[in-house]
Amino acid sequence: MARPKIALIGAGQIGGTLAHLAAMKELGDVVLFDIQEGIPEGKSLDIAESGPAEGFDAKLKGTQDYADIAGAQVCIVTAGVPRKPGMSRDDLLGINLKVMKAVGEGIKAHAPDAFVICITNPLDAMVWALQKFSGLPTNKVCGMAGVLDSARFRHFLSLEFDVSMRDVSAFVLGGHGDTMVPLTRYSTVAGIPLPDLIDMGWTTKDKVDAIVQRTRDGGAEIVGLLKTGSAYYAPATSAIEMAEAYLKDQRRLLPCAAYCNGEFGLKGMYVGVPTIIGDNGIERIVDIKLNKDEQAMFDKSVDSVKGLMDACKGIDETLA
Ligand code: A3D
Known about the structure:
Mean pLDDT: 96
Low-confidence stretches: none
Bound molecules: 3-acetylpyridine adenine dinucleotide
Structural class: alpha/beta
Number of strands: 12
């Protein structure tokens, strides 16, 4: 049986890391697409040359031609520009919306059966625009943010409790921005919910509040340190987790930017919600009950995503 084909649209920091991870995990053959000539070709060759030492079997190809993504089972989109210090994710909207149009048309023409994972910021508005421009079914187009935000939350919690990150599960919902909603009630250490851990005296509410804030600022913390761009190792690993769930029909329950059609009381928009990913793409949105405070945070986050969608409609009338 032929290996699956994974198309990576954008061969920058995240795109290159995605290609490396996909090859090392033998998820399939990789096509790395970018408008910059030489970058995807150079990264593909470099990664392919790591194959003998690492011992993986995967073909890698760099290209500027959308025809090369033909028949891809998965497309991961990072094309666009990242943040620099002082910029918000929303500052990227105008430039990246135009990029989504070109990418959406390329996917529509050459890989209409793919499962598409968007990473380009501002995430929730870009994945919505990408679905519209590509015309692919909504269950086959989603955005990566919740897996990364939850991973950051889990990492910080594991430091606080001094336990393995594997034993910490955590949930971050809402839009991928300053209004994201880390849900402490649904976050646990080996099944013990955070509020119980506070009651037990293992940590304090103030410490958990500080961790929640650090999670919200997690992207900006990295941008501030790197100064030349934004995070890429953890974002790439998070998207690969989603791609693997699809390719292997794992039915993982992962928070993703998914198209809501009634779930969480929302219609016709993308926002971070718990989903099940299997070989039909987004198989299901898990419509969990939020308490009053959580609902208020979620509503605020939804409003900020709607604001970005309106801004997109103002720029491109085909989205209205
Ligand atoms: P970067 O290293 O600049 O790579 C972006 C690549 O896109 C560059 O190589 C560009 O040449 C290429 N590109 C630009 N326009 C096009 C086009 N029309 N077609 C194809 N390729 C094009 O950025 P990066 O990899 O660090 O980040 C990529 C995106 O991911 C940015 O928008 C970031 O803000 C975003 N990001 C999102 C998260 C989330 O959690 C959602 C996390 C980190 C970064």
